[in-house]
C-alpha cells in the first residue's frame, strides 16, 4: 500500500482542472469591459507554457515586468500585491 519511507499521509492531494480557458482576470476594470464590450473585443495569448506553479509565478511576474504593465495603460494595477502602479 505505502512503500515510501516516513509516515503515511492523512490527506490526498487531488489535482483538478483550472479555469484557465474561461478566466480573464480579477481586475474590476476588465470585468466591466468584458460585460460592456463582450469577449469578442479581447484576445488572449499564451506567452509561456509552465510545468509547475513555481515556474508559472516566475513567468507571470517576468512578463508583467518585461511588458511594463504598471507603466502603460493596462488592466494591471499591481503585480502579485507587491508592486503597485501608484508607487511608481
Task: Write structural notes for this entry.
The chain has 88 residues and is mainly alpha-helical. The protein has a domain of 43 residues. It has 2 helices and 2 strands; from the N terminus they run ααββ. Strands 1-2 form a two-stranded antiparallel sheet. Strand 1 and strand 2 form a beta hairpin. The radius of gyration is 18 Å and the shape is extended. The termini are far apart. The mean pLDDT is 86.
How do you describe this structure in short?
27% of the residues lie in helices and 5% in strands.
Task: Draw up the topology in text.
Elements: H1 28-37, H2 53-66, E1 78-79, E2 83-84
Antiparallel strand pairs: 1-2
The average pLDDT is 86
| Strand-pairing-aware structural class | mainly alpha
| Total beta-strand segments | 2
Give the strand content.
under 5%
Over the alpha carbons, how many angstroms does the gyration radius reach? 18 Å
Largest sheet: 2 strands, antiparallel
Give the overall shape.
extended
Give the helix tally: 2
Name the poorly predicted regions.
Answer: none
Jot down its keywords.
single chain, 88 residues, mainly alpha, two-stranded antiparallel sheet, 2 helices
Amino acid at each position: 500500500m505505502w512503500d515510501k519511507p516516513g509516515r503515511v499521509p492523512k490527506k490526498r492531494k487531488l489535482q483538478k482542472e483550472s479555469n484557465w480557458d474561461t478566466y480573464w482576470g480579477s481586475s474590476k476594470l476588465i470585468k466591466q469591459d468584458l460585460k460592456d464590450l463582450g469577449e469578442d473585443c479581447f484576445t488572449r495569448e499564451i506567452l509561456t507554457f509552465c510545468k509547475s506553479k513555481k515556474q508559472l509565478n516566475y513567468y507571470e511576474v517576468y512578463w508583467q515586468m518585461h511588458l511594463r504593465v504598471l507603466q502603460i495603460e493596462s488592466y494591471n494595477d499591481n503585480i502579485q500585491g507587491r508592486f503597485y502602479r501608484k508607487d511608481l
